[in-house]
Amino acid sequence: MEFNNIVSIIALILLIILLVIYGVVYSKVSNKGYPYTQEVCPKLWSTDISGNCLNPGNSFPNGLAPGGWQSTTNTPGYINVPANGGFNPNHINWSTYKSAKSEICGKKVWSNENKIEWDGVSTYSSC
Predict the structure, then answer these.
(1) pTM of the full predicted structure?
(2) In whole angstroms, how large is the CA radius of gyration of the chain?
(3) What is the pLDDT of residues 9-39, one digit of tens each?
(4) Which of 26, 40, 54, 56 would staple 63 via disulfide (CB 3.0–4.6 Å)?
């Protein structure tokens, strides 16, 4: 064998080994859904002192009318605060909301039902 052939074969073997290592590492890192972070409350919603998300009302682009919730009784942690209502984003029932497989998936189903933009939730990709 010539020197050029030996170098080419060694380079090819090293390339294959590096690609296999990269594939294994990438598959372990990329199992998280995108986006990786989520906001506590939907966009333009405020929080009270207890950490509840407060509905800004339908006069805001991302708010709900006082009676405009898909289902206030089924919204996990729903609170009937003065004006427009709200919910507890840390309520335990988010993980079982409409047969969701996780808390964030329950929040995603709820936000999509109500047409609410929620950064890191309504666009979550691993549900």
Answers:
(1) 0.69
(2) 24
(3) 999 999 999 999 998 888 776 566 666 778 9
(4) 56
